[in-house]
Amino acid sequence: MNPSFLSRADxxxxxxxxxxxxFNAATPHVGDGExxxxxxxxxxxxxxxxxxxxxxxxxxxxxxxxxxxxxxxxPQVLRDWLCLHCANxxxxxxxxxxxxxxxxxxEAVELFRGTxxxxxxxxxxxxxxxxxxxxxxxxxxxxxxxxxxEPSRADECLTQTLKQALSLVDVRVVDHLIVAGGTALSFAxxxxx
Length: 193
Fold this sequence. Notes:
Helix 1 runs antiparallel to helix 2 and helix 4 crosses helix 5. Helix 5 links the parallel strand 3 and strand 4. This protein folds into 2 domains: 60 residues; 119 residues, Cytidine Deaminase, domain 2 (3-Layer(aba) Sandwich), CATH 3.40.140.10. The protein has a 5-stranded mixed beta sheet with strand order 2-1-3-4-5, with helices on both faces. The longest helix is centred in the N-terminal third of the chain and has 29 residues. The chain has 6 helices and 5 strands; from the N terminus they run H-H-H-E-E-H-E-H-E-E-H. By secondary structure, the protein is an alpha+beta fold. It is 41% helix and 19% strand.
């Protein structure tokens, strides 16, 4: 089951549930038959499930922190949330955080999904989303599955195009972040906004 569908109480219960492991089972060795590895695979599955649950809890807690005040007042929380959300994806995603005039989070949306090396982004959809949410500002972000956070020329051009399109409806682009691995590079900090 997908952990995002569970309540917080169910997630905590799942995370704290004891892991049953058969310590009497022989440790598999190279050359053993496939049946010797079934216990290891089951343990890997349990660990993987618990890590997914822990990730979901962290995402929810960071999202709650982003909702308590201006998003940019605690930029590390935003960076941590973005890294958890999309750093290890094998495809690009483009996210938009719609903000109030006081830069408080209205909603975070994964607006576009792409391939390994690119995502098509349509400024019209950002404008439409900003207007429907009555947003005064946005933070945009996308990931680089390659692991390299450096912005491409296309990333810089896209940022300028989005700024121009959103400025027509009085919506400000506060920042554009690129997530790669555990890093989130800020266009604003680089002077690219």
